[in-house]
TrEMBL record:
GO biological process: proteolysis
Cellular component terms per the entry's GO annotation: membrane
Membrane topology: Multi-pass membrane protein
Ranges in coiled-coil conformation: none
Protein name, UniProt field: Putative zinc metalloprotease
Keyword Membrane: yes
Keywords: Hydrolase, Membrane, Metalloprotease, Protease, Transmembrane, Transmembrane helix, Zinc
Cofactor entry: Zn(2+)
One term of GO molecular function: metalloendopeptidase activity
SMART domains: PDZ (SM00228)
Length: 192
């Protein structure tokens, strides 16, 4: 219950990355997007003629191994106007790929919507938490178990990143503890 309320508070107060559409939230200085004049609030409609519908389409199109030219034709929408840009996006040797230099925007929700959406977020987190032990057993991920001291350090790190990171951390920890308490441990559950 607490995890659900904390997630709702996060969705209302801080929001989440808007990955459902190619909406530019932030521009990184010194990048091709910055040099070209792309601005926060722009919606990238197409790259090299390929229509985009979600945020991941931007990266997939720019990182496409079949693209041999560093020049990209980008069409975007800004305040109901369509703008076209021809931008050079060379392969960055430090990253091993092309970097346009845009970050997604954030979307916040009113309280009633956040309460509904937080159920979905909490459900998805719960599924991932329950998948965790299976992933460790099948060696798809490495086990990285921490005790109370490790959790306290992680909480401190989250708080240093800001109150919203700390609230998100508390929500995840609360959900972990709630789900683990539902699991039967006969040696611990027997009475006297």
């Amino acid at each position: 219950m607490l995890a659900w309320l904390l997630t709702a508070a996060l969705l209302t107060g801080h929001g989440v990355m808007d990955l459902e559409r190619p909406f530019v939230g932030k521009i990184m200085e010194g990048t091709p997007a910055y040099s070209a004049g792309i601005q926060p609030g722009d919606i990238i409609k197409s790259i090299n003629g390929k229509e985009l519908s979600k945020w991941s389409d931007i990266r997939e199109t720019i990182q496409n191994k079949n693209v041999t030219s560093d020049r990209f034709h980008i069409t975007l929408e800004r305040e109901e106007q369509t703008l076209d840009f021809d931008i050079d996006i060379p392969v960055d040797p430090a990253h091993g790929g092309r970097l346009l230099g845009v970050q997604p925007g954030r979307i916040t929700y009113p309280v009633h919507t956040a309460l509904q959406k937080s159920l979905g977020y909490s459900w998805n987190m719960g599924v991932e938490i329950l998948r965790g032990p299976w992933m460790v057993l099948t060696r798809k991920v490495q086990s990285d178990v921490v005790g109370p001291v490790g959790i306290a350090v992680m909480a401190g790190d989250a708080l240093k990143q800001g109150i919203w990171s700390f609230i998100a951390f508390l929500g995840v920890i609360n959900l972990h503890l709630g789900l683990l308490n539902l699991l039967p441990f006969p040696a611990l559950d027997e009475e006297g």
